[in-house]
Amino acid sequence: MKLCVFQGTFNPIHNAHLKMADYVLKNYDFDKIVFIPAYRPPHKNYDPALTFHRLEMVKLAALTNPKFNVSDIEYRNERNSYTYLTILELYKKYDIEGKISFIIGTDAFEQIESWYETDKLKNLVEFIVFVREKQMPDLNKYEELRKKGYNFTFARMNFEDISSTGIRQDIKLRKDITNLVTDKVKGYIEKNGLYKN
Questions:
Q1: Residue 135 has what pLDDT?
Q2: Is the Cβ–Cβ distance between 140 and 114 less than 8 Å?
Q3: Could you report the per-residue pLDDT of 104-137, keeping only the tens digit for each?
Q4: pTM of the predicted model, to two decimals?
Q5: Residue 104, SS3?
Q6: Domains within the chain, CATH numbers bracketed
Q7: Cβ atoms 102, 118 nearer than 8 A
Q8: HSE-CB of 73 using CA atoms within 13 angstroms
């Protein structure tokens, strides 16, 4: 199986996340994309009260494509969401052809050397990097990462100016988020009164 992983806080998952995953399916040859919401993201502040809701929203968003799967692997382990440990478990769980690919934004990829067991992780995955700015970033820093053994390609998808932080702020300000998340995710947020405070 050719597998691609999309790991993140997804607080909440939004349409740009889904467009990125759709792009990967259309432009790469994967059997499935597995969304893995982080149970306890080590690099971000997070609200434990939203942990379960984040997983449920990803499940709803993944209904948009039959090749999207959702894993609760990090929820079952109830630990800091270290990518290296999760990837090791995925190799045990699936019959992987080649290496697992990993969707990541430029903002996170620029911090990749600070990740847990990064020198081991870089040998297990190939990164698909999405530009998170309106302009292409300085490529020299990425060439340095390539020299250090990080295998990656840049996705050529146009920048989508949607962020989970912005959505949470919009909800606090009672702005409409209809075009930012799927209808099911929007309904879930409203039903559960999320992000109002």
A1: 65
A2: no
A3: 999 899 999 999 999 999 999 999 999 877 667 7
A4: 0.94
A5: strand
A6: 3-161 (3.40.50.620)
A7: no
A8: 24
